Amino acid sequence: MMCWRVHLCLLVALVQVFGIAARTNTDDFVALKSLKEEWENIPPNWDGDDPCGSNWDGISCSNDRVVSITLASINLSGHLSSDIEGLSALQTLDLSYNKGMTGPLPSSIGNLQNLSSLILVGCGFSGPIPSSIGSLQKLVYLSLNLNKFVGEIPPSIGNLSNLYWLDLADNKLSGTIPVSKGSTPGLDMLVNAKHFHFGKNQLSGEIPSQLFSSKLTLIHLLLESNQLSGSIPSSLGLVQSLEVVRLDRNSLSGSVPESLNNLTSVQELFLASNKLTGPLPNLTGMDLLNYVDLSNNPFDVTGIPPWISSLQSLTSLILENTHIEGRLPVSLFSLFQLQTVGLKNNRINGTLDIGSNYSNQLQLIDLQNNFVDSFAQRGGYSPQIILVGNPICDGGTENYCTVPQQTNSSYSTPTKNCFRCDSAKTASPACKCAYPYSGDLVFRAPSFSNFGNITIFASLEQKLMATFRSHSQPVDSVTVNNPTKNVDGYLVLNLQVFPSGQDHFNRTGITRIGFILSNQTFKPPSGFGPFYFNGDNYPNFADLAAGSHKSPSSSIIIGSAVGASVLVLLLLLAGVYALRQKRRAETAVKKSDPFGSWDPSTSSGGVPQLKGARCFSFEELKKYSNNFSEMNDIGSGGFGKVYRGTLPNGRLVAIKRAQQGSSQGGLEFKTEIELLSRVHHKNLVSLVGFCFDHGEQMLVYEYMINGTLRDGLTGRSGIRLDWMRRLRIALGAARGVQYLHDLADPPIIHRDIKSNNILLDERLNAKVADFGLSKLMGETESGHVTTQVKGTMGVLDPIVAANMAPGSVEKFVDLALRCVQESGLNRPTMGEVTKEIEYIMELAGLNPNAESASASESYEEAKKGFDHPYTNESLFAYSGGYTPSKLEPK
């Protein structure tokens, strides 16, 4: 009886093993095994041969492929094996805050063609950055800051056309900033990048003039604390999207270019500690400036520049040791946001008069070592004033004649009167004793200098908690403490994150929180500016605190060995049987299903050539759309219905589900997803994935919150589209179609351009949609290239005649008429259309390369009665047939 029970147990185990066995792709498992052998302090559950099926900590999979490794702050140590290239489906690699991760990056990392995020913040990596990184065409985030990298910035990074975030700060990089030359790429090619963070390296040479152009969309340019020389290039003034500029602590010389005040969006400007000469830069018109530091430069100054009193957003004016002279105007101190005036070591003279209407935020006026001979006191005053080293203080004993002791703000998160925790734990704001996850939040260019402002730090904590909650993280509360300004002028805050429901985090919780902070998912409140997080290792996982485990008895060991032997034999027999059955099934499927031979891990033969599109299972999309609920029904048409869905990471998607009996077959569906997956442009609606499962055909697109252009033009969406917005939308649509014509390989003709097929995102950026009717250039019908008109009859929407520039409407109508000429020879190319719209926008006083403003900030009337952004005639309302339409430009 006992024997039969043992056999029964083994059979049950066999069934369980076969239920999950072989789920992880073999190449992925081999690569992870190689990484595992190189690393110490790996998670305890990295055991067995099925990382996806066993849910290894820090490993995320899509079907059988490993798509994400996030292992922040778990005290990993070792090297990054060159076998990382075996994870060919990997999209995210985050090993941040593991200082024991050392050695060079392997050049094989350039073979991870699906990688979109490479985040290695606060590790110990060294050696040169491999030039093979320039092969990662899908890379969006590249964060290698806080390491020990040496050598030059690889010019090949200029090939990363999708790059948004580039952070190489706090390393030992040297050489010049690379720009393109001939066939050699450079950073000037990164026109979609918003962040250049190169501070605290050893970069030398001049800042290349070629680095900047009107095509660049940078918002943060951080080059502080390097060894850069030469003058500031005047081309910097072309990058009108800039919000933060840090060129301080270099050896820059010459005059500041007059074009600097073209940067009207700049909020923080740091030019301190260089060798700049000539007059103080004229900052007139830079009305958003909060923080200005021009200190420690030998400027040629004749008086107080008048623009100082015109900067209505100014919080901090730091002009120490700049040779500025004369009497300070009373109007300076009435700037309503002013907090700090630092003008020590200059030639300020006469009477100091701050008036009676000075800013109620004013904290400090530091005029040490000037020539002030009197102070017009008007009763009590709250700002701290320092006049040490001025004639007024010769023998004086007034408070303003002493240097106060340097103290940091003592701000910390308010807590209740908690009981004392034991020495190993910390009390949270809710008086719960726990082991928090901690580290430093470092803000590289804060717009304020009053670090005692409780309100602004409270808003930071609220924003942190909102981010963690929106990503369903197990966080009970957060605290920020001890704000200090370090030697680099950065604001440093200690952050503590407390667990919810227990007194410690598990590894999954730590790695996810670390990833939120390392990949910039968290967006700080206005005024804090660019930041990085430097997390501490987390030493309080439950398995580490539990102590050593007891050794198993000898009888258990013997029994386990015998059982394992029998199990292995059964597994071998079952494996042979399963392999035979699998081959028979595959043969049958291939005859009827165009995807029957498709293995997502390969790309050979007749396999769909997909680039970045994810294959979803039916059960996944059913779950993400709440069982295709009526509440999530956002459109319908001949093809079927469209549902709103929410992915596990919180991303909204639109799921286009074919109705049963749809006329589109498997081969057509395969062709469509191949087409959609390989076009990528900011003005094209992107394909997130698809489903070809359970007899279903579904396409998963990015969700466009503001619906179709037609909804906007007819007023259904509640968005007021004035002439300026319409021009921007027209330009975006034109650029999207131009990409299909000129840059797609082979070119693609859309054949159904209309207002229903132009969608608007949250910033009213236009995206061209619905390639279901598209035709590849070179496809033939009956042996010749088709010229047949396809699509839907279109109408010209009326144009609102009011907020219009003279001449722009006439030119736009003329362009539209040329686009619908019967003969293709008379129609302009899409490249010509795009250039003409850009010219019309310039004529109307608009910058065609500027981003659209946030829709929420620019609507002129609220949305009313508009529930769904997709109408019955939108992107997903595929009719299954073709009807005549207006012609498309060449």
From TrEMBL:
Keywords per UniProt: ATP-binding, Glycoprotein, Kinase, Leucine-rich repeat, Membrane, Nucleotide-binding, Receptor, Repeat, Serine/threonine-protein kinase, Signal, Transferase, Transmembrane, Transmembrane helix
| Segments passing through the bilayer | 556-579
Q: Where in the cell is it found?
A: Membrane
Catalyses:
L-seryl-[protein] + ATP = O-phospho-L-seryl-[protein] + ADP + H(+); L-threonyl-[protein] + ATP = O-phospho-L-threonyl-[protein] + ADP + H(+)
For whether the record's keyword set contains Nucleotide-binding, the answer is yes
Q: To which species is this protein native? A: Sesamum alatum
- Recorded protein name is non-specific serine/threonine protein kinase
Top-tier EC class: transferase
Q: Where does ATP bind?
A: K656
What is the annotated signal peptide range for this record?
1-22
MF-aspect GO terms: ATP binding; protein serine/threonine kinase activity
